[in-house]
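Reader question, answered in our methods column.
A reader sent in the components of a multi-part assembly and asked whether the whole thing could be modeled at once rather than chain by chain. We filled in our standard form and ran it. Here is what they sent:
COMPLEX SIZE: four components
ENTRIES:
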Amino acid sequence: MSTSDDIPARARDADATRDDLLAAARRRFAADGYERTTIRAVAGDVGVDAALVIRYFGSKEGLFTRAADLDLRLPDLTGVRAGDLSRVLVDRFFAVWEDDGTFLALLRAAATSEVAAEAMRTVFAAQVAPALAAVTDDRAPERAALVGATVLGFALGRYVLRLPPLVDMTRDQAQAWLGPALRHYLLD
Amino acid sequence: MSTSDDIPARARDADATRDDLLAAARRRFAADGYERTTIRAVAGDVGVDAALVIRYFGSKEGLFTRAADLDLRLPDLTGVRAGDLSRVLVDRFFAVWEDDGTFLALLRAAATSEVAAEAMRTVFAAQVAPALAAVTDDRAPERAALVGATVLGFALGRYVLRLPPLVDMTRDQAQAWLGPALRHYLLD
DNA sequence: GGTGCATGTCATCGAGCGATGACAGGAGGC
DNA sequence: GCCTCCTGTCATCGCTCGATGACATGCACC
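And here is the structure of the entire assembly that came back:
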């Protein structure tokens, strides 16, 4: 009896535990934001003691930094025809926002945390602006920022504020609405 | 000596104190977000004991609700020519965002607080959608949400994330960029 | 000029947080 | 079979926060 009803016997594998903690942290940061997310809750989700999180990531901020380390995997836009640009970008948008909580965690946290805001600026400078520079003639940083603001505004409305018209919108409808706006920012 | 070096002798005026507390709360909520704003800090800004805040507003959430009670003062758009619409809206945008911290407080808080998100939804339903319904033929809620997402995205990038290209933009430049996008959302 | 209520203060509680350091236990090397 | 790290736990600290209720103070009114 003492051996048969044990907890599923979590393997003593530090790497796996670290990955589980990062996944749980992303979910919590995305759902609750930075301040309301507690180390105890993240550890509890994984079934581990809170002190272990500190040991692995040093501090709550260290955990967040690792959990919000984010890669948009924007494709190379060189050679993509102007008419297809917005379609590619909106597709990418949904992949990033709906299949993984990382970006939502970063957005929620960025509203109140300067480190998160800085991380967001870095994403723009290192990923968005270079990708868009391949398809614009001039003012690439400005265009990238406007495209980013559009995308972030839509994500804010749909996933954070949950404005009903945006929540109910299908991907195709979003495509149809956002497409012309993105084309304007990229090409006009 | 005991009477000459007193503190400026705050008058015992409950209404004035309440107003001061609300103004201080707006500044704190706008700068720090909901969780990082403490009742003690707000009371300290006004030079008053924290217990008084509870007495006047019941709780931290009560204080926030009152501080974030917000009026966009959108003008009546009936009869405004299509070509002037976006100009009117962007002008209003800057008035709301740069002259008063209320909306910024609401945005920052909405990222992590459900009550704040609900307040934001109410602003859309009660103020933005009706105002825009006067100038659109159909799908007014959808158009209002898209206009709102545009405006919120721009504000997020400029005031919260402080993306350099958006921070450096003049009102006229913002006008020129956002205008066609807003026209698209309103009229296409 | 004293009395009573409105205004504001003080001391304190209980809870939850991040973080620390000492300890336990299992797996692998000799 | 024992020793030794690596992995994870436990007890606890120190702090801050929101909130409460008893107390002090000043103004208005009679």
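What stands out: Residues 12, 38-40, 50-51, 54, 59-60 of chain A lie near DNA strand C (CB under 10 Å from a C1'). Residues 14-67 of chain A form a domain with the Arc Repressor Mutant, subunit A fold (CATH 1.10.10.60).
Send us your own complexes using the same form.
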